[in-house]
Amino acid sequence: MTVRTGRNGAAGITPTVEVSILRSTLRDPSIRRSKGLQRVVGAFFASLIAVLLIAAPAAEATTPSPSPSATNFQNNISGFLRDDARAPIPGVKIKASGNGFQGEATSGANGAWSIGVPVQGTYRVELDTSTLPDGIKLAEGQDNPRDVTFSQTSNLSVIFAFGKGIVIQQQDFGQNLLNRLVAGLSFGLLLALAAVGLSLIFGTTGLTNFAHGEMVTLGAVLVFMFNGMGLPFWLAILLALVGGGVFGYVQDAGLWRPLRKRGSGLVPMMIVSIGLALAIRYVIQFFFGGATQQLPGAQSAEIQIGPVSITPNNLWSLIISAVVIALVGIVLLKTRLGKATRAVADNPALAAASGIDVDSVIRLVWIVGGVLASLGGILWAYYRPGVTFDMGSQILLLIFAGVTLGGLGTVFGALIGSIVVGVFVELTTVFGLPADLKYVGALFIMIVVLLFRPQGILGRRERVG
């Protein structure tokens, strides 16, 4: 390199050398890739913000509004009126009063009714029997009016039974236990979708990702946004799943991979994930709002399948979760890609020495984890029901409990652990635990597992120190 000295004695670089350094810098492929990656990450977040800005007004306009009172408040008391032949009963008035509020609704052509209430609490619901059609009356033993109480939901369903000679009987312990068991299985498989993705990420990178709950939230929020834009519901779901996968890719490409390349420790990366979770959560709240919104068809009456009473939404959630998890299991066990993923999770250094592209496998794991988390968020929005900006963080503890119980980094362990957690949470209410405290059982499970079997059900015992 040629160096020249000015009159004041200062050394300088000739313009020729400056130009050559600039050209060599521009020709450096790593710098070009870095700039290209930055553009991709920036474009993704800019596109996401633009979609949220455009879709938010339209989404709010398409929120279901069964009655004027339901549009003013985010908490609703609702139900369906059907006679003993399952035919809808329209034109019936229902009143709700309590907590200094009185509201009224009239059942529609499909028998549906909904009353918005300002705050959660206990309300007295009364059906105006004078508005019932001729020949239809409440079943014998049916309470009217009745007191109902909100619990862990913004939508409270109230069912009135009709029919001559029908006697309403209290559900016995065995029937309630069976229903809660099925509901727990549905809830556990829903948790497993998110837990499997979290377990895959931990197994391949060692990262405990506290932002995984926001990946769950993003799936439900994107469905609501795309549906609000007027897109068909199936297309909204498909785009939300794609958005979840893209978000997982962007996270790894723009944040986690550069931190791994710098040799950042797992504890600092975990702290970064906590900050990322808070940032994403409140960005979603800024654009989406703090109110609870509903996806299409979120309200559905229970159906009877043999001895089990279950809502169609929970039934579909159970089926979809089981099918998707089975497909993931088949891919992990039977395909070369699945074997490579398990090899990286078992020993990344040995996998790299065997010719496996570890970075590509990790990138794919982040994409799959994002898709599974988004699907879990959509099903969670129907199980609650409702979409909120913090819905993912509400079940993050349950997801971690399932992963911990099954064994950190083991996919099938996460599946088994999540099912156990889901069933345990739902069965606690059968044995007298208040519904508001049932999620505390997940913390109890984590403590017990860490005390007596830290490696989990399917985890391996490892030497520490």
Structure description:
- It is a single chain.
- The chain is of the alpha+beta class and 465 residues long.
- The chain has helices spanning 15-27, 29-61, 173-205, 212-228, 233-261, 266-288, 312-334, 336-346, 348-353, 358-383, 391-394, 396-406, 411-427, 440-452; strands spanning 3-5, 11-13, 75-80, 93-98, 101-106, 112-117, 122-127, 146-149, 155-157, 303-305, 308-310.
- The strands form four sheets. A four-stranded antiparallel beta sheet has the order 5-4-7-8, with no helix packed on it. A three-stranded mixed beta sheet has the order 6-3-9, with no helix packed on it.
- A hairpin with a 5-residue loop joins strand 1 and strand 2.
- Helix 3 (173-205) packs across helix 12 and helix 4 packs parallel to helix 6 (266-288).
- The longest helix is centred in the N-terminal third of the chain and has 33 residues, at 29-61.
- The two termini are 52 Å apart.
- The model is unreliable at 1-27, 55-71 and 165-169 (pLDDT under 50).
Short summary:
With 465 residues, this protein is of the alpha+beta class. The chain has helices spanning 15-27, 29-61, 173-205, 212-228, 233-261, 266-288, 312-334, 336-346, 348-353, 358-383, 391-394, 396-406, 411-427, 440-452; strands spanning 3-5, 11-13, 75-80, 93-98, 101-106, 112-117, 122-127, 146-149, 155-157, 303-305, 308-310.
**Secondary-structure class:** alpha+beta
Shape: elongated
Characterize the main sheet: 4 strands, antiparallel
Radius of gyration: 27 Å
In total, the number of strands is 11
Low-confidence stretches: 1-27, 55-71, 165-169
Number of helices: 14
Mean pLDDT: 79
